[in-house]
Amino acid sequence: MAAFPVFWALLLTQIVSAAGYTFLSGAQQAWLADEVGEDRAAHLYLLGSQYGRAAGIVGIAATAALATLGLHVPILAGGALALMLTLYLWLQMPEDGFTPAPRGERQTWAVLTTTFRQGVREVRASRVLTLLMLSALLYGASSEALDRLNEFLLIREVGLPGGLSAANWFVLLALTAQVVGLAVTEPLRRRINPADAGAASRALRWVLGLSVAALLAFASAPSFGWAAAALVVHGVLRGLYSPLYDAWINRGLDPRSRATVNSIAAQADALGQVSFGPVFGLLGNALGVRAALALAALVRLPTLGLLRRAGGGRKSV
């Protein structure tokens, strides 16, 4: 993408990236749960999010510095780092909890289809998993509106203060969200027991409820300070959502279909983004960006009821 900044190349990179994401989605969570066990993995999901925030701070600062050499330079650097990480994982990543299929059964469409159907059956047979998938769908739909419209609201509706360029303001906001998230998540990580499905359920409902309030506050922001604070709070809460959701959904899954179930959850989130993203765009044109973002927050509200119904129980019918 950075080497060939033309439309067809950009489009091709998005297709390849989406295909790669499909293979990756759910694989990391499933691998970790199988390697260290569900209870320990639940804690590591939160700890991993902390490392991710710390790395994000370094990455944002490095991106800002490299961008002074050209906007394509950070993209090239990111691609090179991704390739290096791939090589390292290929050589060093253990997989002791995985039992490979017999050689004669590998890479066959029949086996792939059977695994997929097994994962779908596990989701359909479990009330908790079904409710979690619906929650992922609505959360993805709501998040897509914020991802696509937050810059427009800050630049066109609220207005950015002087003194910094628009790019630098967004870098500063991203850094602030990461730093605050790092500071807030650590004490929460020590107090929340994500290995307890009930505790994970309650924490996830609190996170989602507060994120609805933050999104509504952002949509109605009368000033840049208000909007920036709401956006930072929402970013912190968003960073807590994924590890708590991962800890909950991986409780009691069949190891043979764990990766498939995690992938279905990721695809449910993506389906919400693809399905509702254009809708919120049209609403933004018709009713205004603030109204579209407020509606996106309301779309997230039903997830609270879905998660309450799911409770903290086992994944049974």
From TrEMBL:
Superkingdom per UniProt: Bacteria
Keyword DNA damage found: no
Keywords recorded for this protein, A-Z: Membrane, Transmembrane, Transmembrane helix
GO molecular function, one term: transmembrane transporter activity
Transmembrane segments: 71-91, 166-185, 206-233, 279-299
PANTHER family tied to this protein: PERMEASE, MAJOR FACILITATOR SUPERFAMILY-RELATED, TRANSPORT PROTEIN-RELATED
Annotated protein name in UniProt: MFS family permease
Organism: Deinococcus humi
Lineage: Bacteria, Thermotogati, Deinococcota, Deinococci, Deinococcales
